[in-house]
Amino acid sequence: MSCFRCFSGCRTKRGKGEKRREGSTAPASPAAASFPSTVSTGAPSNLTFSTASSAVVTSHSEDSSAVMRPEATKSSGSASVSSARSIPELYEERGASSLREFGFRELRAATSDFSRLLKVGEGGFGSVYKGVVRLPGGPAGGTVVAIKKLNPNGHQGHKQWLAEVHFLGVVEHPNLVRLIGYCAAQGERGPLRLLVYEFMTNKTLDDHLFNKAYPVLPWDIRLEIALDAAEGLLYLHEGLEVQVIYRDFKASNVLLDEEFRAKLSDFGLAREGPSAGDTHVSTAVMGTLGYAAPDYVETGHLTTKSDVWSFGVVLYEILTGRRSIERNRPKNEQKLLEWVRLYPVESKQFSKIIDARLEGHYSKQGTRKIAKLANSCLAKHRRDRPTMREVVESLKQAMQHKELDGKAGALNETSPPEEMSGKPSTEDVAVASARRRMLHLAALGENANSIARRRFMFMRTAASPTPT
């Protein structure tokens, strides 16, 4: 998936009535760093594209000739609590003492000198490795973590690194990935910047929706993941003293733990919301192609409704099992949002867009409600889109439809006819859901074991002496 970045030297703009004040670039230490609450803005057409994808945690870089210090003004937004404190100020109060500062040698040892065999993801920020570190109060054998290492050749990677430290040092929610600590050191070839996160066993929603090597993700688990992600966005929009706009919501940034609970990751593009009395923040246009709201791309005006649009795109990905853009498909099917319009929600042909891998194991009413919710999120005018609070409530209503009637007898095809007759009880539905979850986890375990065996054989072959 392509990501776009805007490189311009224009001053940052905000909505009506907003003041501006320039500051200096951020120093290495997160605790003492100045932080860009906005980035420079210019003509949205000044775009460049680069490729970035990740299996665990990714980040993207942005460039700007003008770095702004945060205003000590009130934030505004739906149900957001007014506060004179910015994210960096909240970080000084909360995050500076809660995050651990790691040494570079410790993280290099934790990843076997950043071994390729331990690499679990790669993106615009750099590479992500699986490692083991010792934490106070942690298990004697160490704690498994994800370690993201800055690409020293990236564009202003320090700014992205600093944004993640500040935002994740402040936020605290079960549906946001937890930042354990960071590393800021100076190496022979330049600055070394790393982030240490909790390790998410089941990788990303992107992997489970689009990678055919994974077993099919059951319908009920898809909805639970969507609800978790929506709760995370709602917290960012309304649950802090200052409103936060995520700006890069997509399936590859939705991480999954061992029980498939979803957590949002990658806060390198997150921005504080508009000040009191303002309608938007004007920034350089950044994000991922196929997920960014068209009004934001055209104007650079960033609001929480920009996140809502992106959420609508991912809802259709969950429904269809297709990426927002797939160049290898027929021309009329390459852009997901254009393709699904050919099969309206109320039409008899609507079921044709549902992920065929589900084999009918989904709720007819539930899928239609999800499609209607996605359409509302994708409204042309941002004022017509729902808030994330409304999205959460709509998702909960759609999840009430637990019948799997996409295909007759799909719930349990091996059951005798008399057991399938009549409406299943709540207990039957719960048992069936648990059974599907266990089968999915078992299939994942088999896939992981297969990968581990292949890796072992590769290492053993590499270690064998070459015959002379």
From TrEMBL:
Domain Protein kinase stretches: 114-404
Entry keyword annotation includes Glycoprotein: yes
Gene Ontology molecular-function annotations: ATP binding; protein serine/threonine kinase activity
Localization per record: Cell membrane
Gene3D superfamilies on file: Phosphorylase Kinase, domain 1, Transferase(Phosphotransferase) domain 1
Keywords: ATP-binding, Cell membrane, Glycoprotein, Kinase, Membrane, Nucleotide-binding, Receptor, Serine/threonine-protein kinase, Signal, Transferase, Transmembrane, Transmembrane helix
Alphabetical GO biological process terms: defense response to oomycetes
Cleavable signal peptide: none
SUPFAM superfamilies: Protein kinase-like (PK-like)
Region (Disordered): 13-41, 60-84, 402-425
Topological type in the membrane: Single-pass type I membrane protein
TM stretches of this protein: none
Biased composition, class Low complexity, residue ranges: 24-41, 75-84
Protein family (similarity comment): In the N-terminal section; belongs to the leguminous lectin family. In the C-terminal section; belongs to the protein kinase superfamily. Ser/Thr protein kinase family.
Record-linked PANTHER family: OS01G0588500 PROTEIN-RELATED (PTHR45621)
Protein name: Putative receptor-like protein kinase
Organism: Zea mays
